[in-house]
Amino acid sequence: MKKLLSIIIPTLNEQTIIVETLQTLQPLREAGHEVIVVDGGSIDNTRTLAAPLADSVLLSQSGRARQMNMGARFAHHDILLFLHADTRLPKQADTLIINSLSERKWGRFNVRLSGRAWLLRVVERFMNWRSCLIGIATGDQAIFVQRHLYTQVQGFPNIPLMEDIALSRQLKKFSRPSCIQTPVVTSSRRWEQNGILGTILLMWGLRLAYAIGVNPKTLKEFYD
Fold it and tell me: What is the domain-level CATH number for residue 206?
């Protein structure tokens, strides 16, 4: 029986990018995989634009973890792929995922940031190296997981930030992640808008604070 993906995309006011993102996924839909958009209450045209290009467009309370968990509940297939709205999958992503799950229970892609600044190359290399070394993935890396394991760990914890880190910690108890070297391309807009060095320090600070037990609600205030 052919293994199929349910691709779950949380959105919030993403009308400027959602069409391009979903257009890149149409070959996967044609191959039998499904695309589920879970919107957190956009006040722009995100849902209207997404509807013709997705198998389902769901409306949820805002919160990335809550939205992705809703998408997983509505998913029909046995492999769940959580994709940010500003991230593009490589060609043959389905084959890469399915092959990698023959040996592992979950995984992630390397990431490439979209900008051209040389410092972004340093950032992405460090992100990919660290992720594979410690077995923790971030949402920008397009986390994928076998549905039965996702259910077993009860999905993403309903926290406003670091839900990807928290999920990775639970999944890691059962299997180290598969580290697909072919990268996804994710937008560097946040890095460029806020300054690359400043964003690096912010991300490190948030991860350190989370590691020592600071409440994610407090961290979200600094992230925003």
Answer: 3.90.550.10
